[in-house]
Amino acid sequence: MGKKQHQQDKLYLTTTEWKNSFGGFKGLTKSNADFRRLPFNCCSISFQPVEIPYCTPDGIVFDLESVVPFLKKYGRNPVTGEKLEAKQLIKLNFHKNSRGEIHCPITFKVLTESSYIVAIRTSGNVYSYDAIERLNIKTNTFNDLLTNESFTRDDIITIQDPKNLDKFNIQTFVHLKNDWKLDDDDEKARRTDPNYYLKSISNETAATLEQIKTTPSKEFLEKSDTSIYSSKQIKTNQQKLDHTNMATYSTGRLAASFTSTSMDPVTIMEAAIRDENDIRYTRIKNAKKKGYVRLVTNLGVINIELDCDLCPQTCENFIKHCANKYYIGSKFHRSIKNFIVQGGDPTGTGYGGKSIWNKPFRDECNPKLQHSGRGMLSMANSGPNTNKSQFFFTYRTCKGLNGKHTVFGRIVGGIETLSAMEAIPTDDKDRPQTDILIEDTIVFVNPYDEVDAELKAERERQDKREAEEEKMNATVRSAKSTKSSTTNDTSTNQPFRSGVGKYISNEFYTNAKKASATTDEDNEYTQKKKRKLAASSSSGTWNFSQW
């Protein structure tokens, strides 16, 4: 025994002792390091949850849309590589509960990755093994528990055995090892989509790509053999640029063509075009214009003021629906005392209605507009940015709705009509027992028509001014061309003499001689004057004042 041999003993288990001598994690071995498990309800080819489940006699699950083309091309089991025919496949019936989870239809236990799952060959019904063992095997009555079809013990197919999961190991699948693939039409179509090669994208990017897909220029871009940034193509797709929709920034195509070889060369700076609604809404906001509408109901009239300067898109949707008589005949289908009364659905169910653009539009929640007080007008929706045509009036302050629903107006007349609506009794589904109908809608002030007329007048004046300038420029060009043609007609290409300068006219020679004679006279006069000055200076008194 060595000295102080027990000083190295610890009063606790070390990591090495726990790992080697007890139940600690032994590290990744070759067997479990390469194990990648496939869920039992996923197809062994596409690795996606099955929609039309089928299985082999071994209990390997496939989706019908994936396995049939595979068998036509290869004729083998994608997992084991053995020969397999389509007639050997067995239709499975997975049963789901109200939450959409696969469960046993007898015990109602949810089937998980640790459940023992079996299927009956004759019926295709899927059960937990516990139910089959207790009700069929132990009682020796081999009748299907749901359909009462008779079967044998060999007809029990094991879908999942928690103690034997080798058939779920993706690493051992033969079609992956041998790279057996199906290039079907759907796969080819998916590969043409740019999103096919993106591993993950944000919601904003997905929305942008979806918008690009639906643009009218998509078909042209796919068929074009030239650059996708062809200048001719972009010009045909864009609207007309004028002084009204001209932005203060450029399209950026000049800089892009300078730095990218995939674009056609662009040598001019092009102004970007602003969206038409952006121009209209900006003018309404700057002018702080309001809209005024009257709803005529069977209980009275309601006068509404709309905040078009704060919620321009929402107010335009409501005003145009009123102008088009969209709400006439519709009911206020929901009324909750001390809360709200809701309408605007032509179907009267609470699930109908559409916007003037035939699609939902975004929220315009403004901190200046809150659900404060009685008679506030707000948009009903089914979630963020899902506004259509339904709206509601508040019976009192509803702070819980702030930031979730767009407030875009208020009642400025006929508040007693709102009180009459609140007084009508409702059933257990908050539907008024007496119908509240919208009989007519009257628009008093529509700022959007005013702005549209404004923009139209501006464009007409601009077109007229451009036409006058073009006419004036055409007159100037015509005059210049007339003068040029006259000059060309008087000039001839006939030679005036032989030798050098034979095409120079006699008139030019005459003018040149006159100029030469004048120059000689000037030279003679200058020489005489110099001689006279020299004589006077030599004969006179010397003068040194200029020294």
Automatic annotation (TrEMBL):
The keyword Coiled coil applies. GO terms for biological process: mRNA processing; protein folding; protein polyubiquitination; RNA splicing. CDD domains: cyclophilin_RING, RING-Ubox_PPIL2. GO terms for cellular component: catalytic step 2 spliceosome. It is found in: Nucleus. GO terms for molecular function: peptidyl-prolyl cis-trans isomerase activity; ubiquitin protein ligase activity. InterPro entries: Cyclophilin-like_dom_sf, Cyclophilin-type_PPIase_CS, Cyclophilin-type_PPIase_dom, Cyclophilin_A-like, PPIL2_U-box_dom, Ubox_domain, Znf_RING/FYVE/PHD. Residues 457-499, 511-547 are annotated as: Disordered. It catalyses: S-ubiquitinyl-[E2 ubiquitin-conjugating enzyme]-L-cysteine + [acceptor protein]-L-lysine = [E2 ubiquitin-conjugating enzyme]-L-cysteine + N(6)-ubiquitinyl-[acceptor protein]-L-lysine. Residues 36-109 form the U-box domain. Belongs to the cyclophilin-type PPIase family. PPIL2 subfamily. It is an enzyme of class 2 (transferase). Residues 478-493 have a biased composition (Low complexity). Residues 457-472 have a biased composition (Basic and acidic residues). Keywords: Acetylation, Coiled coil, Isopeptide bond, mRNA processing, mRNA splicing, Nucleus, Spliceosome, Transferase, Ubl conjugation, Ubl conjugation pathway. This is RING-type E3 ubiquitin-protein ligase PPIL2. The keyword Signal does not apply. Pfam families: Pro_isomerase. Pathway: Protein modification; protein ubiquitination. Residues 297-443 form the PPIase cyclophilin-type domain. Has a ubiquitin-protein ligase activity acting as an E3 ubiquitin protein ligase or as an ubiquitin-ubiquitin ligase promoting elongation of ubiquitin chains on substrates. By mediating 'Lys-48'-linked polyubiquitination of proteins could target them for proteasomal degradation. May also function as a chaperone, playing a role in transport to the cell membrane of BSG/Basigin for instance. Probable inactive PPIase with no peptidyl-prolyl cis-trans isomerase activity. As a component of the minor spliceosome, involved in the splicing of U12-type introns in pre-mRNAs.
